[in-house]
Sequence to fold (618 residues):
Amino acid sequence: MNNRIQLGLLLIFLTILGVLGYNAWLWETTPPERSYTEFLTDLGSSQITSVHLKGGELRGEDKIGRQFRTFTPDLPTLIPKLLSAEVNITAEQPPALFDRLIPMTFLMILLTSIWLIFTKGSFSGGKIWKENRFQVRAEPADMKTFADVAGIDEVQDELKEIVDFLKNHEKYNLLGGRIPKGVLLQGPPGTGKTLLARAIAGEAVVPFYLIGGSDFVEMFAGVGASRVRELFRLAKKNAPCIVFIDEIDAIGSKRSSGNGSHEEREQTLNALLVEMDGFASNETVIVIGATNRPDILDPALLRPGRFDRQLTVSLPNLHGRVKILEVHTRPVTISPALNLTVIAQGIPGFSGADIANLVNEAALTAARLKKQSVEMSDFEDAKDKIMMGLERKNAAINEKERRKIAYHEAGHAIVARLLPDTDELHKITIIPRGMALGLTQQIPIEERYTYSLIYLLNRIKVLLGGRIAEAIVFNHLSTGAANDIAAATDIANRLVCEWGMSSAIGSTVYRQQQQQFLGSLETKGNFSEATAREIDLEVRRIVNDCYAETEKLLRNHNRLIHELAEVLLINETIDAEEMEIVMECYMNSKKNEKNCPDEQYKSDCLETKSNRTEEILA
Ligand code: ADP
Ligand code: ZN
Fold:
């Protein structure tokens, strides 16, 4: 239990004790009440021996020695009666208001401090309570290196530079170069973000401090902020070093999206920003943050001088999975007959952590069966076991989704490949990245400053290709293509309005601008309603024409869509070269359509592909 909570409970206990004790004391010292009439009667019959007056309150004793208490409404007329009855009178001042306030004030202070302790605790400076709760994991031993990381070469290459910074920070400082402060690794859980950060520390042989973002966020205001300061004090003392903040979105989420502990998180975030802005150049502390929700991060975190490098760590593709399998089977005795590529092909969508888990399960299974080495069947068993767990979560929908994405991307790619005057294909992937489900990447052959009409129309067709392929194969439309359609419409719109490329509208430039008009945003054009309608019609005509032409093209190459989608489903990511192999296969088989039955073609293609795959992996 937290020390602070203990103190709070103790105070509550003391308060209750105090209140009870006070009441008991009052009970003890207060004589029983007697009515005023009764008192007057007793006084008349000379029963009363003495009274003590305190304001209107009257305490007395009768002849038998019984004490009592009553209240007189009319003191001036009572005094003569008491005197004539020869009662012994004593008196004191009525208690001042101030005296009555003392116990109240005391109680108030007590309650307030209890409340403070439970809600804030900042009044105590947070100092005493902090030490034993706040844990930074420092790791000098069990250092990882880049050899432990596989399948994310692109990210790893980017990070090699950081290792160099850490190793040669003096040199960089001398030259006055600005050493990066923060790197944000974003990607799904288990893809090796923590591992990468550890490996950087291991490669550079510097201390590694790990803390989870949620460790900062406490229910007591100010604690998070002071932990941040503490952490950085430690880091600066041991610079050069790596500070790794896992799940940084716990502190760094957008300020508006706050729930209860919103103010606390803001303070913590501000402390972090202040610390990151405040490094002197000779303090080489590199902060690595990890998140799988980059979309909810506060933009302030991503400004220059903070986490200005953002790297995406995606789920590994086939090639990556093979490499990760290699890393994790290194310490395991595996059967020489084991084909890691085949295993990797059977586990699409597995993260690095899933693969580590798979190898571990397989080794356990083999050990249970008292085998000499881990065999394929052990991997199969382990896979089934893990998949079954995953299935319940999301794999079932994923398979259907994956097919759709594969056909969608195949559509983009085929249109881009078949039409002339388009940018060259670079990469096609069905691995989700950030907000995009899949991606067909093209690179311009050369930097273009002017665009031909053909190029622009083909660009529209490439964008529409994804949705059209889905429509042809699955016979229904999905919302996944909304961005594509919007982009296509935008090109058509600019083609008509800005670039004057439409014969129907002519070469007048119709500028649509958003203007600030009397404080509200208005879309204003330098054209009439009628022209606006004409423009709309023309834009729609262009998009519709492109759609029809693209649909015809893709229907003509229906089989190619299926082939490419199939290859994508297996390989997940293919590059331009692999795309060419698929194209070649397809074209060849099309040429000798008659003497090349489908089956023959398929096995040819698959053979080429697996040869190719092995080639890549070699
Ligand atoms: P994240 O921080 O992205 O959630 P971790 O770095 O904690 O993922 O990964 C958990 C474990 O999964 C690692 O310790 C490692 O054993 C394994 N792993 C994940 N990604 C990889 C990878 N790219 N290469 C090798 N092992 C990996
Ligand atoms: Zn698309």
In short: Residues 2-98 form a domain with the Signal recognition particle alu RNA binding heterodimer, srp9/1 fold (CATH 3.30.720.210).
